[in-house]
Amino acid sequence: LISVQSPTPPVAKSKTPAPPTFASIRHAAPKGNKDGLELSFAALLDEAAEEDRKANADALAGKDSGGGHAAGKYMRARAMLRRAGADHERGLAAKQEMIIEDRAAERHQDELIRLSTMTGKPTLANPATRQLELETRKLEQKAALQGLRRAARAAGLEDDDHEGEGAVTPKVDAPATEVEKSIFRSYVAGELVCVGENCAQFPEEVASTLTMQFGLRRIYMPRNDLKCFEAYSGAAGAHLHSRHFMHVTEIDLQHNHKFSRFWDDVGRLASLTRLCLQHTGLYEFPPSFMWLTQLKHLDLTHCCFKELPLHLGELSQLEYLNLRDNMMIELPSTFHHLTNLKYLDLSGNGMAFLAIKPLAEMADPKVVAAWEVLESPAMHGVYYHNTITGESRKAMPEALKIARVVEQQEKEDAERRAKHKGTKLDKPLVEGTKRYNDKRTALAAQGVPEFECVVDRKAGTIFYKNHVNGETSWEMPPAMDTFGICGGLVTLKLNNNLLRDLPESVSCLASLRLLECKTNYLKKLPFGLGECRELRVIKVPTNELSELPDSMAKLENLSELVLTANSLTVFPAWVGDLKGLRQLFIGNNRLESLPYKLGYCTDLTDLQVYNNPLVDPPYEKCLTGLDRLLFELRQKFLEATQGPTPPVHPHRYGIGDEKIEILPLFQRRLQKLLNVAKETKELDLIQNGLFTMPPKVHELLDLKRLNLSAQHFRGLEGRPKFPEGMAQLASLWIKRCELNGVDESVGLLRGLKDIDLSENSIEDISHKVFRHLKKLEVINLSRNHLYALPEEIGLIPYLKELHLEMNRLDFLPDSLTKLKGLEVLNVSLNNLSTVPPGLGALETLRVLNLEGNQLHRLPPGMGNLRLSELRVSHNRLEVLDEDLMDPNLKHSVEVLRFSNNNLLELPPIFDSAPKLKQLLIDYNPMVSPPSSLLEESLETVLQYMRLRTERFREVSGLLESYGFEVEPDNFHPVARGALVGNTGFLTPADQAHFDKNIDAYINGEFYQCELSAAELVDNLDNLRHERGYVFNSLIIQELVGVCRQEFTKSLDVPPRKRFSANVLRGEGVRRPWGRGGEKVRCYAITLESLLEDAQPNPKFVRRYRPSLFALAVQKLPITVFDYKPDMLRKAVQDFEGPYGMVGEIEDAVTFEEDEYFDAFGKHRATFPAVLPALVVTRIVYTGSEARRRQEEDEELWVAFKDMERDLADWVSSRTGQKRLSQATKFRHREVATAVTEGETKKREATAELARAEQEVLDVAERRQDFEDGKPFFDHRIGSLEQAIELGNAADEAVKIKKAELNELIAQVEENHRKLQMNKKQKVYWCTKDLKRKYGHVVWKELVEQKRQEAREQGWRRPWDGVDGEAYEAWAELQYRVENNLAKPPPLEEWEILEEDPDDRDDFEWRGTENMKIRPLKEQPFGEIVSGRFDSEAYLRYLHEMRPEELTNPWDRPGEKDEEKEEGSEDGEEGSEEESGEEAE
SS3 for 1302? Predict the structure, then answer.
């Protein structure tokens, strides 16, 4: 700050306030440190006052104190203060402006950097280093700013005191919100832009002097939450008033839906020119709004206005007014004062009329009541005094005069109505009379207008009422028709209202260019609308217009007229005068005709006349095209105005007769052509529109070339006829002339070499035409309707080219084969199904085109031709012959086209064509080569064919070497039925699958086939063997099933058994066909009962009995093969199960008795009956069953190993050792007890045997006595039989006693051996029994699991029990338990003890006593004869893994104890354990 020096002590500075915010700094920034200046000035004033007092005192004392010192001091101080304040303010403003500009530049730079990261602004830095650039730039700007501040301090613009401790340098921070950013930008750009920030009021910063200094010119705040535009006090003490917006020129507050009012002094916005308030809740303006005389643009779209201010006309500069979508029903009385208005939109309101009510301002009652009448003697009369203003006057005031007139008029009207009521004198007042004018003035003073528009909502009518005389009228009074005074209107939109008519004053809008009045109820348009000469567009659709004013003919500038959906019945003819009209929409009216003069609207581009009952012209005529419609309308107009058109005979010619020429001119031009032909010997009359050949052509006898193409030679009369004298004519072209035949006179042109009759409609040609034309070289009959050719065409010796394409030929004459000089033959696009077989004899033929016919096969001998081009596309060729290219064609052909046929393959015949350049085979259902390969080069296709041939030979040889019978022709083009014999039991599906594989290997994309020929044939051979195996297995399985079913039947219970043991034997039949060579149970069936039906006989068969094979066939599935006995015989011989043989036909099998009876009823009795029979196993294992059995054994083996490992771990533990010692001692005591008991029982058994032997001696003695005849009481035997029975019984008793004794002796000896076992043998004994027990536990758990799985899957388990009987019994029991038919079996003791084997941590010997193994006769692994924990599976496991453990431990050689001490120690331990066990 700049401080002023003063003799008084300086005033202490106020304490430095806290750092202000960004907004508060901007509010206070322009003020500077004015408080400090004011304090300095107060000190100066005090000093000046003190010096003034001293000067006065000196003056009174007569002293001279330098008068005027105080006054001079004061003036200097004041001037100094003023200059210092001004300099300070300028410095602060410059400094603030510099800071703002720096901030703006920094923000601009930040924005550029931000945009560069998104849009890729060109920069040397990549996106990863742009932040570094930004930070560097900020540091540079900060350094520059500090330099500017130092320069400002050096220049004196900044006080040094700011560098002290307590001073704070104001700093403008970056705006924190979008609103603050908008305020910040307003300082630079002069506009406040804040869009969609939910602002509820104007920012406080708008009220700052800084904003006023920078000059806010534009406010743009749409889509916020502003509620009003009124003054308020901000939080920082700022007061927002209308004076803060006095320089604003544009305000845009659209889409602030809560905005409803302005402040009352809004008129102070004197600079406002544009105001946008669309989509707000505004419904009225304050009176001061009319002060905005500079307003030019006012947009009030979609607001809530029901009426506009009465004095709206005071906005004299208004040019744009948009009142769309409000609720207005009438215009204000001063609306016509808006003479500068150019755009007006009143759409979407409820306006039923545009009449403007005359202005009627009511006198203020307070003003009238303020005047009082007083009498003045001095003035000799009365005078009028105003009690409010104190004014006095002698003349009656105007307000009081009007009030008196109104009262008098009302009084007279009341007296007149009362006096003349119902008489002729009771008439309304006449306009223009004094009484009428006085009453109108009186009503106006009361606020009642002269006229008013009344809308009858119920009747839907509008009328106008005169409040002066009470009359009503349907027509708009001139006093209300002032809308046209707004002469500057250019655009007027009145859409979607309730308007019945438009005021006539609209015709006065000379500048009007656009008039829109859509969707109203207009019945007519203003009569003088044509005076609006500048009108370009009139849109009045969806109204009730029935006629148009004639003045519209003056609208020369009108370009668009829309009258859609009205009630027009007649369209005026003056529309033809609108030369500039381009668009006319008159659809959906009632027009029956169009004015003919409309045809003169040549600039018309759009014409819509839909939904009109048009008769003239018809509506169909309107659809032919606008130009044609206008032309016909012009023609009709000329006929109506000038009479009918005179006849003119034009001549049409050209490609499509598009050219028109008057007939005389055409004849003159034709004559010129004939004259020229006399000299050139050539006449070209192409496209002249002739219907007959000109007769003067016959005079040109020397003519050599004649072109009559593109004419109209229709019918017999039109056919050209030629004289015999034109012998020099060599070329005749009659192309595209609509001929349906050829005149025979053509045959007279004997010198003709080239004839072209193409593109006509010729159906037949006489044989006389070509009979004498021996010099012809080229004949072109293409594009006609020929069904046949004359045979004479083959007698033309020099013919080289014959073109017959695009006809309807079904066949070609055989005489074509005689054209030895023919080089080109084109018969494409006909209906040929065959071609002459001798076509191959044409040695000179170079081009043959057969495309577009119905050929299924090419004729033989094509290889004899020397063609360069052969085109056979678009036919129905199915196959190409192998000899197509031999012997000559392959050496000459260059182009081959076989596209669009039914070819499935290409034969390998093109590889030998060296000149072949083009081979087209696309658009065929081609398999070989595939369509994807056709896009490659010709060489690729040929290479494909070579490889395919090699593959075919390879696979055919392999199939024959494997014994298959094949048909090579069925290998291609698609393999089908390649195998024809020696396929075994391969099904049709198998053969079809092989066809598919062979097709993939030979045909199509064979290069993608992964299989080789050897693999393909090997797979087929393996499948043949597999199918034979399955078929044989199926026969044997069903036969075994029938045997099982018949064998299990009973003789008494139905269905009774039909096959006895004499023919079907199941007991005692075993064969070594098991898995390990063990014997398995089988069925033996005699061959007679197997293959032959048995007739009833008296001994064995009571009723007819079918053969077992017949019963099996009934159950076999239906196949493509017949089940015959030979098949059964072959199945038995060839089939082997997973374990080897399952059946065999044996010559000698023993049965109980022979049941055979011959045809004569004679029984073949043989005993024993040894017959040939089929022996087959009762169970035929499938491959899956054998695999599941093996997998189950492997799982068992793994489970046994795990169990043994767990048991070994437990035995090695301390607990296991202790329990093992206890078990051995316990068993030792039990064996000792058993030895004692055994010795006792042995002595008893020896005594019993001695008694039994004595009994035998006694019986023998008694028998001897009986035989000797001694008395009965000596022997007590009644007969010899009794003696024999007694002897037998005694001998049997001795045998039994001996057996018992031997068994006891064996047991005792075994127990003695057990007692003699050492410690290791005893441990081995206990451990082995424990393994067997828990091996059985593991086996039972796994078997239970597998049984459940088999039951769920529906599998068999033939290895579970004898032939699966154990599994079947278990399944039956499970079924009965689940269905409550039986109780579940009781749990064994070990099952109760071992409830959860998975949690087993201890082992128990309970139940393992007396476990032994004894050999079995039928089982190779032994049989379990005692103990409930013995498992055949575990024994098989031991047999494979440790066969030595199958020997009882007491039968194995013992091992001596190593040391005696160990025995003593063991004894001590044993005693301790025994004592412990007893205690336990």
Answer: helix
Q: Where are any strands of DSSP class E within 731-799?
A: 731-733, 754-756, 778-780
pTM of the model: 0.45
Q: What is the number of alpha carbons within 13 Å of residue 796 lying toward its C-beta?
A: 30
pLDDT in tens, 1393-1408: 444 444 444 566 655 5
Distance of CA 1378 to the CA centre of its chain: 52
Cα–Cα distances (Å) from 80 to 5, 74, 154, in that order, read 10, 10, 21
pLDDT of res. 445: 65
Site of tokens 């005026």: 572
Tell me what the mean pLDDT of segment 1036-1055 comes to: 78
Q: Is the dihedral of CA 323, 328, 331, 333 positive or negative?
A: negative
CA distance linking residue 828 with residue 784, whole number of Å: 12
For the beta carbon of residue 683, count every other beta carbon within 10 angstroms: 20
Q: How confident is the model over 238-257, as a mean pLDDT? A: 81
Q: Which residues lie closer than 8 Å to 999 by C-beta, 6 or more apart?
A: 974, 975
Helices (H), 432-500: 434-445
1054 or 974, which is more confident?
Answer: 974
CB 677 within 8 A of CB 683: yes
Q: How far apart (Å, rounded) are the C-alpha atoms in residues 673 and 269?
A: 89
DSSP 19: P
Cross-strand partners of 81: none
Amino acid (1-letter code) at residue 1088:
E
Give dist(CA 737, CA 717) in Å, integer: 13
Q: How confident is the model at residue 777 (pLDDT cuts 50, 70, 90)?
A: very high
- Find where tokens 């970056």 sit: 174
The string of pLDDT tens digits covering residues 597-632 is: 998 998 999 999 999 999 988 888 888 888 889 988
Residue pair 571/546 in contact by the 8 Å Cβ criterion: no
Nearest CA among 902, 906, 904 for reference residue 919: 906
Q: What is the pLDDT of residue 873?
A: 95
The tokens for 233 are 């006090």
d(CA 882, CA 912): 12
CA distance 848 to 897: 11
Whether pLDDT at 1060 is above 90? no
224 Cβ partners below 8 Å, 6+ apart? 194, 195, 196, 197, 198, 199, 200, 253, 256
Nearest residue to 762 (alpha-carbon basis) of 791, 783, 778, 732: 783
| Three-state SS letters, 483-494 | HHHCCCCCEEEC
Strand order of the β-sheet with 754-756 is 682-684, 705-707, 731-733, 754-756, 778-780, 801-803, 824-826, 847-849, 869-871, 895-897, 918-920
| Best CA proximity match to 1444, nearest among 1434, 1452, 1432 | 1452
The amino acid occupying position 1005 is E
| 48: its two tokens | 């000046």
Q: Residue with structure tokens 């009644």?
A: 1278
Cα dihedral sign, 1307-1310-1312-1317: negative
Q: Which residues contact 485 (CB under 8 A, 6 or more apart)?
A: 336, 337, 339, 505, 508
For a pLDDT cut of 70, what percent of the chain falls above it?
A: 77
Question: Could you give the CA distance from residue 156 to residue 492 in angstroms, rounded to a whole number?
Answer: 64
141-178 pLDDT, tens digit per residue, is: 666 666 666 655 655 544 444 333 333 333 334 444 66
Q: Looking only at Cα atoms, what is the longest distance across the chain? A: 216
- What value does the mean pLDDT of the chain take? 80
Apex 1281 CA angle, 1277 and 1287, nearest 5: 75
Pairing type for strands 1080-1086 and 1169-1177 reads antiparallel
In this structure, what token pair is assigned to residue 1388? 């064994």
For 752, the token pair is: 């003709």
Q: Give me the pLDDT at residue 323, please.
A: 93
Characterize the bridge pairing of strands 451-456 and 392-393. unpaired
